[in-house]
Amino acid sequence: MNRKFIKNSNLILRKILKLNSNKTILKNFIESFLNIYISEIEINKSPIIDNKKSKDYGIVDVRVKTIEDEELNVGIQIIDGDYIQNKMFLYYAKIHSNQVLYNDNRKIVKTITINILDTSYLSTKQYHKVMRIKTNIINDSILETMELHLIELPKFYEIIKDKHLNKQLWICYLKGEDEELIELAKKENSQINKLDKQLEKYWKKEKV
Length: 208
Prior knowledge:
The chain has helices at about 10-15, 25-35, 85-100, 165-175, 180-190, 190-205; strands at about 40-45, 50, 50-55, 60-65, 70-80, 110-115, 130-135, 145-150. It has about 210 residues and is of the alpha/beta class. The strands form 2 sheets. Strands 1-4-5-6-8-7 form a 6-stranded mixed β-sheet, with helices on both faces. It has a two-stranded antiparallel ribbon with strand order 2-3. A hairpin with a 2-residue loop joins strand 2 and strand 3 (about 50-55). The protein is globular.
């Protein structure tokens, strides 16, 4: 994975991407991986439980509205270490259930999580898998209630091409193995470049 994410990756990105000034980065990232177009995006604040701020998990979770007027709850995390399956489902449960605790009268909507792995986990060759939980009732109006995206960075070997270009640029940047591809990602996607500049500032400050 990109050297800038090696240590405390979720924490570092959370500090940067929870800033309202960086909503455009989140919008571009989510649109690229979920293949949707977002008209509105709001960063969810950590809910208050027993007068205490709830612990943050993952990188960030947001509420988005698509151009088709569909509202979604979206969470993003980087997973490392063991118990990957447990971490994916526990994170999903946390992000989805948080909606009940916001106390802002919003309706409960479908939750989607984007899980980034710096290791190969599933046996399939595809680097981007989508897992959905469906009911077994025919003609049920809610056929897909859970949706988890799994991005396995080591499995990405595709040549950069126009189809899904932004998703491929993000993966090249996150994977961080090829300096030429990292520079290409920064050049072709202004939001990746914006994130990279802020990460550079973060690490310079940490070293000082």
